[in-house]
Write a structure and sequence with these properties.
This protein has 522 residues and is α+β, with helices and mostly antiparallel strands. Helices cover 35% and strands 21% of the residues. It is built from 19 helices and 25 strands. The strands form 8 sheets. The chain has a 6-stranded mixed beta sheet with strand order 15-14-18-19-21-20. A hairpin with a 2-residue loop joins strand 9 and strand 10. It is globular.
Length: 522
């Protein structure tokens, strides 16, 4: 909400501008000697489409932000009100005050950010595509047509993920992923799916969509979540991974290398995410905590935080026609990892809302719904779709002793940066190995490199509860662990996987995840 600007507040703001010796992204100064400058409508549009801002009219930048002589504040105030009302669509309703500064009047204009459904704000005479601006640095930049369209998407729910892919048919689906999805839907929604054939169930889920000729074709969401090779139809709907030897892209290392490793992850989303995870693990560093005679290996980035960041990127990215040629980019640097996707945050979700958690707004509703029940390559399902993903990433990083991730949002892109190296060095008694993870590269199982640890230093509460239940019973099945702990089967399976990886339990008695599988403590 806007607040009344007092003389003291104005003096503080001008002092900051004088120190910076320039306008800022949130504050613009205009002298307005002979009236309003012609470019002022651009600044109003830029503030309204961005995060809002402050206009100070009646100060001379060239004179060190001194008041302008002969300035008529009432005339400027009236002209500004007309400009906001008559020259901008939708009209801007700023708070306009006249405040004394160094004995002279200054017109102080507070422009609030428009609601998402009211953007873009544009200069009426120039039209939506020619007159929409955004504030960047100390200036105003005209929005690209892509950015204008993304703002317009906020006016109603997009359905890009439900578009029909005319050349994609049912035989282009991965049968294992389809079987897993339908098994899950029939178990949790029996009244809706138990009596349906596979084809009818896929139609209800909008994986199969009938075209104008009445023929079954795949939706984009169905193809991405369940297709055997979606890149046959959309070659750039991939995750592109690159590992760099220096902290800046394009700057070569001392030996002339611009890349340490790079790969393009293809296939349906479950497979792309898994391949991207392997690429990151292949290249990231590991550390070791030494406690007495025992050693604990610590990955540079928490496993589940990485997975959540990747899933969020492919699930929430922009799938409009203009973005189909853009990949999700994963860049690994010596000090950080950046995940960037086309399309900024959607709907009511802002950076502040992300941090608060518990609020969600889904650009790709159909895709998100499918991924919620599409099986992962290992255990569980691809996405939770509960609006809690970012907070889970923050918590995972905090638990690993790493700095808080840094989200960046614009109209065209969203990126999330995870910081690894500094966090690893912050562990007491930690040694960092600045080499690719040798256990991933060699293919040796994690159990082979583990020894006994004090489990309280790294196991979460669910892991500890499952391990204690296994030890208490001597051996246990997944079903028995569900009954003993009160946790869901997917949660138990995730904990079992981590305990197996740490060499704290072993398993035998059936295929992977089989109900006959039993687990013993080591």
């Amino acid at each position: 909400m806007n607040t009344v600007v007092t003389e003291q507040m104005l003096r503080g703001q001008v002092a900051r501008l004088r120190a910076a010796q320039t306008d800022t992204q949130w504050c613009e100064v205009k002298a307005c000697r002979g009236g309003l400058p012609k470019d002022l409508a651009r600044t109003l549009s830029g503030f309204a489409n961005g995060s809002g801002g402050l206009l100070l009219l009646g100060l001379d930048e060239e004179a060190g932000l001194r008041p302008v002589g002969g300035f008529d504040p009432k005339r400027i105030q009236d002209a500004l009100a007309r400009l906001c009302d008559e020259s901008l669509t939708p009209p801007v309703r700023p708070m306009i005050d006249i405040v004394l500064f160094e004995g002279a009047p200054v017109v102080v204009v507070q422009v609030e950010e428009l609601r998402p459904k009211d953007k873009p704000c544009y200069i009426t005479a120039s039209g939506r595509y020619g007159g929409s601006y955004i504030r960047t640095g100390d200036g105003d930049r005209r929005l690209s047509s892509y950015e204008v369209d993304r703002l317009w998407d906020e006016h109603e729910q997009p359905h890009y993920d439900e578009r029909i892919v005319e050349d994609a048919k049912q035989e282009d689906l991965d049968p294992d992923l389809v079987a897993g999805l339908l098994r899950r839907e029939r178990r949790i929604h029996p009244r809706n799916f138990a009596q349906l054939s596979d084809e009818d169930a896929l139609r209800r889920l909008r994986v199969l969509v009938r075209n104008e000729l009445g023929e079954d074709r795949l939706s984009l969401a169905g193809l991405l979540a369940l297709g055997s090779y979606p890149q046959e139809f959309f070659p750039r709907l991939v995750i592109a991974f690159a590992s760099y030897p220096t902290p800046q892209k394009g700057i070569a290392s001392a030996d002339g290398r611009r890349f340490i490793d790079s790969c393009t992850c293809v296939g349906p989303i479950p497979h792309m995410v898994e391949d991207a995870m392997l690429a990151i693990e292949r290249n990231m560093r590991t550390a070791a905590r030494i406690e007495g005679a025992y050693r604990q290996d610590i990955p540079e980035y928490p496993h589940e935080a990485l997975r959540e960041a990747l899933v969020n990127a492919v699930m929430h990215r922009d799938y409009s026609a203009e973005a189909l040629g853009s990949a999700v980019q994963v860049d690994l640097y010596p000090d950080r990892l950046e995940v960037t996707n086309p399309g900024g945050l959607y709907g009511v979700v802002t950076l502040e809302a992300l941090d608060a958690g518990g609020i969600g707004s889904c650009r790709n509703q159909r895709l998100a719904s499918l991924l919620e029940n599409t099986p992962r390559v290992d255990v569980g399902y691809v996405a939770e779709n509960r609006g809690s993903g970012y907070r889970a990433i923050v918590a995972d990083c905090a638990n690993a002793g790493l700095p808080e991730p840094l989200p960046r949002n614009s109209i065209a892109t969203f990126s999330l940066t995870l910081f690894g190296a500094n966090g690893l060095r912050s562990h007491a008694g930690v040694e960092t190995r600045s080499i690719a993870n040798p256990y991933v590269a060699s293919g040796r199982s994690r159990v082979e490199r583990r020894g006994p640890y004090d489990i309280s230093t790294y196991l979460g509460p669910t892991d500890r509860a499952v391990l204690e239940a296994v030890r208490k019973q001597g051996s246990a099945s997944t079903r028995e662990l569900v009954q003993e702990t009160g946790k869901s089967r997917p949660t138990i399976l995730k904990a079992l996987r981590r305990l197996l990886d740490e060499g704290l339990i072993c398993a035998d008695g059936g295929a992977k995840n089989s109900p006959r599988m039993r687990y013993w403590p080591l």
